[in-house]
Amino acid sequence: MKSIQTVITSMLLTSGIALSAAASAQSVPPQPPPPPPGAGQEGAPGYHAIDMAKWQEKMKERMAKRQAELHELLKLTPAQEPAWKTYVQSMELKNMPQPQDPREMDKLSTPERMERSLERMKEHQASLQNRLAALKTFYGTLTPEQQKLFDENHRRIKKDMQDRMAKEMQRKDGPPPPMPRP
Question: pTM here?
Fold first, then answer.
């Protein structure tokens, strides 16, 4: 009799352990596979080289189109045109700092790379200050109705850009990992 009880007890314990292991395995989210060796390096799988000349040309076309749409939307007066031209010139890509060559940056020491990054941040800040000054001058020439249209258009463009960037990130990297729950 004891042998049947021992067999039943051991079967219950084994099945309980198996159920417990199955339940815990289901609650752990699967880990994403590790990136392939060399991912992110030129020529490696997953590397996305950017043709800067092509990208800049595409950006110039997009900016010109949006500026033409905005110009038409605002119905600018001849008195507002000089401020508009100054504003548009401040937004040109030639005023933006060019990306650094990663191969050149790799040759530098860490403090040198940080100094170079700081210099570029200062250049970018100076560019933004020039753009802001041109924007304030132009914005000041607008009527309240034009300012409202300008603000709405800027919000829409910013949202479109954020959406486009999010889609691009998902396309390159796949969906983001699930957020851990507290």
Answer: 0.58
